[in-house]
Design goal:
By secondary structure, the chain is of the alpha+beta class. It has one domain. It is built from six helices and eight strands; from the N terminus they run ααββββαββαββαα.
Length: 210
């Protein structure tokens, strides 16, 4: 039995040693390892489109004035670049006259006159893709936790006064670009409306000078 076991072991060993060995060459390119790697997520079309629009609005042919909001001039169009980290913060808008016609000058309204100030907040409305401007109004004091405090909030809301379409975001979406032509051509008067909001004061100044 011992001799038979040795012979069987020898035959099995010889069979394994004589078995032909198959060699395979594997391409080392990344495609061959694709099933090991996670697929790179493609950017949403809206995001790519917004970045392309940003480059068009702020790139070649644009004049930039840097500040808290970068202001871009593209031919006859004007744009604000609003940082996202400034949304929801109270900002004081100060309007001063740069130049005036003789009629206003004679009425006592001169260059540099501060004619309208207001506190505003910028808010992003993702549902409509707009940047909203809300007039910030202080609330009357009410005891915290008192039932009257809810009534105060409901009856003294800060109203929305303007909204602008968001034209584009920068590459990392930390700023957004809005077109502001309407503010300066008289179409949008909620931020600076020297004639409608102050016509009574101007009229009084004019009549008192006679």
């Amino acid at each position: 039995m011992r001799l038979k076991t040795i012979l069987l072991t020898t035959v099995a060993t010889g069979t394994l040693m004589c078995e032909p060995v198959m060699a395979y060459a594997v391409d080392s390119t990344p495609d061959s390892m694709g099933w090991f790697r996670k697929k790179k997520k493609s950017e949403p079309n809206d995001s790519v489109k917004s970045k392309n629009e940003y480059e068009k609005l702020t790139g070649d042919g644009s004049i930039i004035h840097r500040g808290m909001f970068n202001v871009y001039q593209k031919k006859n169009d004007y744009y604000f670049e609003v940082p996202v980290n400034l949304l929801g913060r109270d900002m004081l808008v100060v309007n001063k006259l740069q130049r005036v016609p003789s009629e206003l000058n004679e009425a006592g309204v001169n260059r540099g006159t501060n004619y309208e100030n207001q506190m505003v907040r910028f808010e992003q409305d993702k549902a409509t893709n707009k940047l909203l401007i809300r007039q910030s109004r202080p609330l009357p004091l009410a005891p915290a936790g008192d039932a009257i405090s809810q009534s105060v909030r409901d009856n003294y809301i800060s109203p929305l006064i303007a909204g602008f379409k968001i034209e584009a975001f920068n590459n990392d979406s930390t700023t957004m670009v809005i077109k502001v032509n309407d503010i300066y051509d008289g179409t949008e008067t909620s931020i600076n409306n020297v004639f409608s909001n102050n016509h009574k004061d101007i009229y009084k100044m004019k009549t008192s000078s006679k």
